[in-house]
Amino acid sequence: MKESETLNTRVMLGDDGKYRWTYEMSLFKNPTIFLLILKIFFFIFLGVFAVVNISDFIKWGAEKVPQNLPILGYLLLGITAVVGLGYLIYAAIMGGKYIVEFEMDEKGITHKQTASQARKAKKLGRATMIAGAASGRIGIVGAGMNAQRTEMYSDFSKVRKIKAYPRRDLIKVNERFGHNQVYAAKEDFEFVKNYIASRCVNIKQ
């Protein structure tokens, strides 16, 4: 983080009625980002594997499908190893930290990386997209596109589900087509969680 970027870890109420704070997370100690990346690659791979199995079923019949299951296991192990190595490289490039700023009011909450981190993330995302396109791997292109997304806004009226993970300082704020991750220090965690929950009137139990 540059000297011009202030790390206000506690939630502060501004004169404009908006709450603001900055959260700094260790990419090596907190597994949240790694699990998110792994989840993205897992579902991409699962979709491709499903298409292959449907094709084999149509061509060879039901007896072919069980033969593909051991291959699935080996490929999942390979994907986990590759994602793990890629994540370590990402963490090193980002200086071992994920630093994000939050702005919250009665209507919603904005999650964005600090300016210096956003620049790094966008450069890394572009490089990943180019590498993915050159190798013909759609999953890598998708991961690169996701890496370039450094800001997200959640409208409380559109939120359908909230899940809290106090040990990771994490509150998942999920809309139908958007999934935001809100972080808050332990001292402010309950306040932020309750503030969000009390304003999300369309949550589905």
| Cα-to-Cα separation, first versus last residue | 40 Å
* Order of H and E elements: EEHHEEHHEEEEH
Strand content: 15-25%
Low-confidence stretches: 1-6
| Secondary-structure-derived class | alpha+beta
Radius of gyration: 20 Å
Note the overall shape.
Answer: globular
Total number of strands = 8
Percent of residues in helices = 40-55%
Put simply, the count of helices is 5
What about the largest sheet? 5 strands, antiparallel
Q: What is the strand arrangement across the widest sheet?
A: 1-2-3-4-5
Mean pLDDT: 80
Describe this structure in words.
The protein has 205 residues and is of the alpha+beta class. It has helices at residues 32-60, 69-93, 115-135, 138-147, 186-199, and strands spanning 12-13, 19-26, 97-104, 108-113, 151-155, 159-165, 170-175, 179-183. The strands form two sheets. It has a five-stranded antiparallel sheet with strand order 1-2-3-4-5. A three-stranded antiparallel sheet has the order 6-7-8, covered by helices on one side. Helix 1 (32-60) runs antiparallel to helix 2 (69-93) and helix 3 runs antiparallel to helix 4.
Keywords for this entry:
single chain, 205 residues, alpha+beta, five-stranded antiparallel β-sheet, 5 helices, 8 strands, globular
Helix and strand topology:
Blueprint: E1 12-13, E2 19-26, H1 32-60, H2 69-93, E3 97-104, E4 108-113, H3 115-135, H4 138-147, E5 151-155, E6 159-165, E7 170-175, E8 179-183, H5 186-199
Antiparallel strand pairs: 1-2, 2-3, 3-4, 4-5, 6-7, 7-8
Helix pairs in contact: 1-2, 3-4
